[in-house]
Amino acid sequence: MEKKEKLDNLRHSSAHLLAAAVLELYPEALPAIGPSVENGFYYDFDQLKISAEDLPRIEGKMQEIAKTWNSFEKLEVTADQAKSDFVSNPYKQELIEELEKEGKSITLYKSGNFTDLCRGGHTPHPKNDLKYFKLLKIAGAYWRGNEKNKMLTRIYGTAFPTKKELEDYLHLLEEADKRDHRKLGRDLDLFTFSELVGAGFPLYTPRGGIIRRELNNFIEDLQSRVGYQQVWTPQVAKAELFKVSGHYDKYKNDMFNVVSHYSEEEFFLKPMNCPQHTQIYAAKQRSYRDLPLRLTDFAMLYRDEKPGELNGLARVRSFSQDDCHIFCTEEQVDNEIDTALQMIKKVMATFGFSYRYRLSTRDREHPEKYLGQPEVWDKVEKWAEKIMQRNKIDFFIAEGEAAFYAPKMDLMATDALGREWQLSTVQIDFVMPERFGLNYTDRDGSLKIPVMIHRAILGSSERFLMILLEHFAGAFPVWLSPVQAVILPIADRHLNYALKLNENLLKNSIRSEIDERAETLSAKIRDAQLQKVPYMLVVGDEEEKSERVAVRSRDRGDLGKMPLQKFLEEIKMEIGDKKLRSA
Q1: Residue 28: which residues within 8 A CB-CB, separation 6 or more?
Q2: What band does 454 get if pLDDT is binned at 50, 70 and 90?
Q3: What structural domains does the chain harbor?
Q4: Which one from 8, 297, 322, 323 is the annotated catalytic residue?
């Protein structure tokens, strides 16, 4: 048995143990489902009203019960018998009826005095194995993930084979909590959400807006140097556009419908830029001399995410993406992708991310999910493998993760806590150019269909900002910091000198502020550090007399006194080099 399967079985067994403990303490509770998940397990209950303060009590009961469980006994039963066993539990009844309708076998698993409807997958020695677990939190969850169903009480937990693994994971959770982007975004005044605007629609403050602009400008500067051209497209389009692209059939439920009071036409807020970019290409006849045509777009996009899945900036309904679509000949594909991969490599190095790639291929057992011919998919999937091998890229294959029109080369970046995030993507698309009837005149005068390369480096600006916030724990490198330097006058009499310094910094494009509050210097320094400001410039009698500043670094401590010009030279060099000084 593989290590992952053993861990899944251990966690699934822990979910059973959780349900058994809850029923002993709260007999009126109705257990629903309790699977293992990526980092642990959960169990959903109806008629259970508890708070986080109750978790230690439940955990203690779990420890007590685990000592009495010698095995998981499998019981194959009829549907009628199963319904009888769970006669007062509508959730189990629903699951049993589905199994019966599908003609599947119905199994129960018994441990000690607890029996649950279950298809299996348990640790063989629960008494010895179920020792190192922890209940983490309580949340609300709709039955079967459908917001039209009843809200249940979900208890999350985790479990590991050894005490050390559990302790290491709990320490990681503590670190992740300190770096929670929602808390940091609030504390650093970067973004907010409003019930009047709507869930999943972030509002950026001036400071948050600075970070977004710096990220976009960084990418745009890299792109423009190698012939990428920025375009701008509407945020709304007719349904016919998405019918041609295939999004209407494959993606409609995730799109926002827009109604016009003056037209019966059906419109949608666009969830991606590619269909509109095809229309820029199609606006005039193209020649092989026009190719490659590289179009970039930072326009806003909208996707109708389920309310229960919204999560800070990690999952939103409005976002922008550093989209690029390259229209080229088949012979130009390799060079264009190599250029894109080199740009991506530079960006990841700038942020200090280690990474590997995921080749997201189609699910061969469900061809109905995809557009295009199987032989084209075979060709592109093999082509993508060769590209990554040629570029000496570490990659793994994830079957079923492809877009409906093309396989994807997805970059999986590792952050400071060792978590993996999908960022950049590159896709070779033969489907969409054909569906839109795109063509170009080749050297021999014949019309040919271009290849369309989809490419994003940061991906969603919202999600990337979330990752950066947690990766750097809010202590952004200087070039990204909303406030790069704060001037701290020791007393009111030093304010005029501070104003003069601030004016000079602003003229040199350094984002600076003055802390004019009637607070002690130590309080001002502490608050600047809490705000993660990279540099603090302390000014008092001595600094004003010598026309210097006492420089204190967020990351390196006291750097001593120096002329303002020297500080300007050093900070400009740091900004230009985009040096990383992360927390």
Answers
A1: 47, 48
A2: very high
A3: 3-166 (3.30.980.10), 209-235+270-471 (3.30.930.10), 478-577 (3.40.50.800)
A4: 323
